[in-house]
Specification:
By secondary structure, the protein is mainly α. It has a domain of 93 residues. Helices cover 82% and strands 0% of the residues. It has three helices and no strands. It starts with 7 loop residues before the first helix and ends with a helix. InterPro entries: CFAP45, TPH_dom.
Length: 182
């Protein structure tokens, strides 16, 4: 992965804007050779234009850049993990929501079935009550008919008895009339 170039504002944010930036011509691999050469030539200060401080500065900038990149990479990974967690939680919440909706539908269906069953029971009770009422009226009518019939029979019996009594009384009345005449 190539190292991105940092502009002046990013360097200022890192506290590196006021430092001199050193770019070795041969790359960083040559730096170690330059250091070795500097150690050899440490007695000859006037021949060496590069000081040790000038070598440390690019390494510090490079190290800080890598540190910033590492932090950015870690932040990116952390954000990726958080995004995955959020997706997982969203999926889990959606599943729970669907489960709740399904349970609500089942509960409504169960209530609907109970209402239908209750309605059928009420209809059956009303029908049974009507049938009982009709049967009770029929029984009352039959009982009334029986009472009327019994009363009719009783009246007929009374008439028969009266008629018999009058037949029996006729001879007695004749006797009584004849005894009165005499």
């Amino acid at each position: 992965m190539p190292i991105p170039e940092l502009d002046l504002s990013e360097l200022e944010g890192l506290g590196l804007a006021d430092m001199a930036i050193y770019k070795p011509k041969g790359g960083l691999g040559k730096l170690s050779g330059d250091r070795h050469q500097l150690r050899k030539d440490s007695s000859e200060e006037d021949r060496s234009e590069v000081s040790e401080q000038d070598l440390i500065l690019p390494q510090t900038v490079n190290t800080r850049c890598h540190a910033v990149l590492d932090v950015q990479m870690l932040e990116k990974q952390q954000m990726g993990k958080e995004l995955e967690q959020e997706k997982h939680l969203a999926k889990k919440m959606e599943m729970e929501h669907q489960k709740a909706i399904q349970m609500q539908k089942q509960l409504q269906q169960k209530r609907k079935q109970e209402l239908i069953r209750g309605k059928h029971q009420l209809k059956d009770q009303i029908k049974n009550n009507k049938e009982r009422a009709i049967q009770a009226k029929l029984q009352d009518l039959e009982a009334q008919e029986i009472r009327d019939h019994l009363q009719q029979l009783h009246l007929e019996e009374l008439r028969d008895l009266e008629h018999k009594w009058q037949h029996k009384m006729k001879p007695m009345q004749r006797i009584s009339k004849s005894t009165r005449k005499c």
